[in-house]
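Hi everyone,

Forwarding the result from last night's run.
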Amino acid sequence: MEEIQMQTAGMTADNKATITETINAYSKRLMGFIRKRVNSEADAEDVLQDVFQQLAGHSEPIEQMTAWLFRVARNKITDRRRKKRPEAIEDIFSSEDEELSLDWTELFSQEGADPETEYIRSLFWEQLATALNELPPDQRWVFVKHELDGIPFNELSQETGEPVNTLISRKRYAVLHLRERLRLLRDELLNF
C-alpha cells in the first residue's frame, strides 16, 4: 500500500480522500473475491494492491465502482496466471512418485560411463526423439528451440511473429506429451 500512497502524493486532497474511502469500503469484499481465485495469501495481497494502484492511476471518473474494481481484479488474476513461468525441462522428466524415482536429469551429464547408464541414456534419447517426432511441427519447433537450444521466448516471438503466450502454450502441450511418453519408459525400466 506504500506504493499507492506514493502514487497519490501529487493528487488533490479530494482525490486522495476518494481513493482512501474506496479502499476502506471495498478492500474486504475484494480481498475475499481475490483470495478464492489465487493460490496464496501473498498472491491475493499482490493482486489487491495492483487493483488499487490501477485505481490510483486512473484519471477518468468511474461510474460503477464495484463493477470496475471486480473487473480489474479478475483481469489482474488472469494476467498473473498467464505470466506463470513455463515448465522447465527438469519438470518434464521428474517423477511425481519420489519413492519410485528414476531421475532423468542424471542422464543429461556425460559422467557415469558404466554400461547400464549408457544403455538407459540411449533409451531415453531414443524415446525423446520418437516423442518429439510425434508432436505437431509447431510444438516440436518451440520445444527444441526454447528448451534444447536455450533461445528465450521473446527472441522466438520476434523470429516467428507469434505472440509469446502462443509459443508458451505450444511448449506446454509438447511438455505434456513428452512427460507421458517418458513416464511410460520410466515405468518399463522400473518394472524390468
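The chain has a mean pLDDT of 76.

Cheers,
N.
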